[in-house]
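Sequence and structure are no longer studied apart. As an example, we show below a sequence and the tokens encoding its fold:
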Amino acid sequence: MQQIKEKNFKKQVSFLSYVVQSIRNYEVLDILGRGGYGKVFKVRRKKNNQLFAMKIMSKAKIIEKKSITSVLNEKNLLKQLHHPFIVNMHSAFQDRENLYLVLDLLSGGDLRYHLCRNKRFSEEESQFFAACIIVSLEYLHQHGIIHRDLKPENLVFDESGYLRLTDMGIARVWRPENASDTSGTPGYMAPEVMCKQNHGIAVDFFALGIIIYECMLGKRPYVGKSRQEIRDQVLSKQIQIKRSQLPVAWSIEAGDFINQLIQRKPENRLGSNNPSDVKNHPWFSAFDWDALIKKKYDPPYYPKKFKGYEGQTDDTMEDQNEKNFVLLRNKTLCEQFNEYCYNPEVCFEK
């Protein structure tokens, strides 16, 4: 009887080690980058040697930046989503000090990194980037989700050159009264969000237009030193690309595509009344959407191996530990992280 009990106990321990997730289940291989709450690492899962990206986020920094809702929102949305043109979640777990988000590993670096290296892209490259973004947005919009923070930093290349959308922190399921949802990144934020008005999927199309404008001309149409300066520029003038501004070898259709997307009034913006209008714009008249979706398209831009970001500094370990200690003593705040769990193999979520 004692032997049976011991055998059953060992089985339970083995089962729990399989179910209960921990950083100990992974081997950390390399640092890929730094974010507002922590770092992103390349990791290998010890059980099967699979490679992933892992965001390790400090609970103290999340509390300090009042971003608990944002990180929980990202996990909850990613749990419902899976698509070849977004960065998918594989699991999520936590310990006393950190949250851990395990994601698809993409090795090509983000579009911002490549914009900084190349300054501009060709029309063929930019069209391909736009198509990848459109497919990812189409998937989100069909699920009633607005991304709301589309920008080069949130578009990541896989090793083949396909772009995928990431960071669902301020994405939201659309609701009619959403004027209070004003988060976003100046320079890519649609005027209706800046002006605290109700908004829909057209905000993502505005950001798409800004990104392709940047790929074409090497700069954003609206720039400024502060959020207010950018807002003033957007509200004071409707920028449009003139024929004389088109780079050599770029088509009129490309300029028209951008111009229709960066319309300040959402009702005038391409895709606002019918999202399929974006895909059906003349610029894509000869584009093979089926080959793209099946990933049989030959990407025109190959991202050179991304080596990660350097030169960014953190708080000193001593200061950060002291800060953590103080913030993590707030039991009420820390309890809000309780639902930060996702394990598709065996999940305890209700």
About this structure: The radius of gyration is 22 Å.
